[in-house]
Amino acid sequence: MLAILKRELRSYFSTSIGYIFVGIFLALSGALFSYTTLQQRENSDSSFYFTLMLFAFVVILPLLTMKLFSEERKLKTEQLLLTSPISLWSMVFAKFLAAYAIFAVTFLVSCCNFFILFNYGSPEVAIILGNIISILLVGAAFIAIGVFVSALTENQLIAAFGTMAILLILLLLGVASSYVNFTPIRLIINWLSIFTRYTPFTYGEFSFSAIVYYASITFVFLFLTVRIFEKRRWD
Predict the structure, then answer these.
(1) pLDDT score of 120
(2) DSSP 185-210
(3) Which one is predicted more confidently, 184 or 165?
(4) Whole-number Cα distances in Å, 187 to 90, 105, 169, 208, 217
(5) Per DSSP, which regions of 35-163 are E strands?
(6) Comparing 164 with 81, which gets the higher pLDDT?
(7) Are the beta carbons of 45 and 204 closer than 8 angstroms?
(8) Per-residue CA distances from 219 to 1, 14, 26, 214, 226 (Å)
(9) Could you give the C-alpha distances from 86 to 32, 68, 161, in angstroms and in order?
(10) Angstrom distance (rounded) from CA 28 to CA 23
(11) Cβ contacts of residue 156 below 8 Å, gap of 6+?
(12) What is the mean pLDDT of residues 161-183?
């Protein structure tokens, strides 16, 4: 597992993908931070910044996941992984962990922007911390979805756009629920919505059910990815 993890981490920066992701992420986060906090001054809203970043992840995170397994199939190296002396769970988790590590480190570096606020006021630490934790949880769920989609195709563009479509649908479910008048269906939509469960964190409230939900989404999509490779191994 450790060998695969190291290989994947190196691959991000032996090609341009890692540099492109980090560059776009930091540039976008800096621009959104300036717009939502520095330029707004007394009307600044850190929660709005994190919400915008959440929607930006729909486009940014597939850059990390689109090549994880699709490239293996395209280069015909997938069989080497399937026949290697390592469990499928370890293989899938190593690739997931590599992508998540790049995302998490880059995101935490971008959060250094908030130290600027302490020079000009007293921002609400609980709200900022709650948003940071929730973003890390959502990021794990998004990357797990991207890993799953990448395992379905050898075309990286299809993997990227497929992931974007799924992430966008999951985020917009919360908006769609307001147009549904039938209460049971509205409750189901809200239960499935990633954004609805994210909302309490924007007020500094730590929702245990939301943490379980994001962890479950991550586990389910990694499990489905493992099942895909179990099927291929025996075909």
Answers:
(1) 63
(2) HHHHHHHH-HHHHHGGGGGT---HHH
(3) 165
(4) 36, 35, 16, 18, 18
(5) none
(6) 164
(7) no
(8) 18, 29, 28, 9, 10
(9) 42, 17, 30
(10) 8
(11) 66, 67, 70, 71, 74, 150
(12) 80
Q: What share of the chain is helix, strand, coil (3-state, %, to 5)?
A: 85, 0, 15
Two structure tokens written together for 175: 């908006």
pLDDT band at 170 (very low <50, low <70, confident <90, very high): confident
Closest by CA position to 149, among listed 47, 228, 34: 228
Chain segment 110-143, per-residue pLDDT in tens: 888 777 766 665 667 777 888 888 899 999 999 9
End-to-end CA gap in the chain: 24
**The two three-digit tokens of residue 216, written as one number:** 């479950």
CA-based torsion, 51, 53, 59, 60: positive or negative: negative
Average pLDDT over residues 25-54: 77
Lookup: tokens for 58: 């729909």
> Which 3 state secondary structure label does DSSP give 25?
helix
Does the pTM surpass 0.85? The reply is yes
Report the alpha-carbon distance of residue 224 to residue 144 in Å, rounded.
10
What residue type is assigned to position 203 of the chain? Answer: Y
